[in-house]
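Class, study these two lines:
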Amino acid sequence: MKFIQVQFTIDNKSSAEEIARTLIDEKMAACVQIVGPVTSIYRWQNKIEQSGEFLCLIKTEKSLYSRLEQRIKTLHHYKIPEIISIDIVDIESNYSKWIHDSLI
């Protein structure tokens, strides 16, 4: 089994919590940590923007990424949401079992 951490940002905590609960309820995520607010500085429509956002960190299996990405897109209100997957190279065995068991 291969595990990943997927991250996305969103502009308010209640939306972050709603998405997190949906992903866990639908067994696409074992855990979603919500961090923030964080400050994001980025270029959008040729202007430098700054906003407060919440960073969501999802633990899941790599095989679920496509479904997870599509689900985040349907629940998210940004035109182009940040959705990034990072391979987990090393993971404690009991924790990996817990992730797997949480997704079945």
